[in-house]
Amino acid sequence: RCQCYDLYDQLVPYTDAWRWQKSIVADYAKALSQDQGSPALDTVILLQHTPVYTMGTGSSSKFLNFATDDPPHELHVTERGGEVTYHGPGQLVMYPILNLRNYKLDLHWYLRALEEVVIRALWSAYSLRASRVDGFTGVWIGEEKLAAIGVRVSKWITFHGLALNVTTDLSPFSKIVPCGIRDKAVGSVAKLVDPASSNTAMLNHVHRHLLQAFSDVFNTEL
């Protein structure tokens, strides 16, 4: 079983969600260290963020098209892997906080599993055939990247996660080199399916399929 905080229709400031994740991770780690019979449950958080740029622990400022002391939106350096990305309204962000001892002690397996969640969700929601690209982490359709993935694993407990562009305004991505990849574009579900569709209806639809795909891939009851 996995407890789910489904806030997909709410805009949550990045720093609030970041603190929340780290608090859950700390509580989970404490419960495991005290051998309390695993009283803590795996957790998944689904939400949207107010506009923000985030960088991974080893990110390079050469992928920013602005000065770090004058960013167009908030800018945070985090402990996740990966390069710079953008989060904003219309993008579904999923933060799984899982004890990989309950699944598989393999970070590469976990990254591929998160990609599989998105691939299945896009297919079931709109029959979009998404795929992986060799050498990169994330999910693409053609030459456009629809989902970015960046995670942190501490004592086999995961946090951070994935971000899927559904009805996202893609213009803020022009201020960065998304994920440090210069020769591929960023896309969204709306751009491929119906740019004129209702933001609310499309987010409602995709979020249900994303949660179902997560449940199926990780074989867990939300």
Automatic annotation (TrEMBL):
GO BP annotations, alphabetical order: protein lipoylation
Enzyme Commission numbers on file: 2.3.1.181
Origin superkingdom: Eukaryota
Pathway: Protein modification; protein lipoylation via endogenous pathway; protein N(6)-(lipoyl)lysine from octanoyl-[acyl-carrier-protein]: step 1/2
Site, Lowers pKa of active site Cys: residue positions: 145
This protein's GO CC annotations: mitochondrion
Gene Ontology molecular-function annotations: lipoyl(octanoyl) transferase activity
Enzyme class: transferase
Keywords: Acyltransferase, Transferase
InterPro entries linked: aa-tRNA-synth_II/BPL/LPL, BPL_LPL_catalytic, Octanoyltransferase, Octanoyltransferase_CS
Active site: 179 (acyl-thioester intermediate)
Residues that bind substrate: 80-87, 148-150, 161-163
Domain BPL/LPL catalytic: start-end pairs: 38-222
The family this protein is said to belong to: Belongs to the LipB family.
PANTHER family: LIPOYLTRANSFERASE 2, MITOCHONDRIAL-RELATED (PTHR10993:SF7), OCTANOYLTRANSFERASE (PTHR10993)
NCBIfam families given in the database record: lipB, PRK14345.1
Name assigned to this protein: lipoyl(octanoyl) transferase
Organism: Selaginella moellendorffii (Spikemoss)
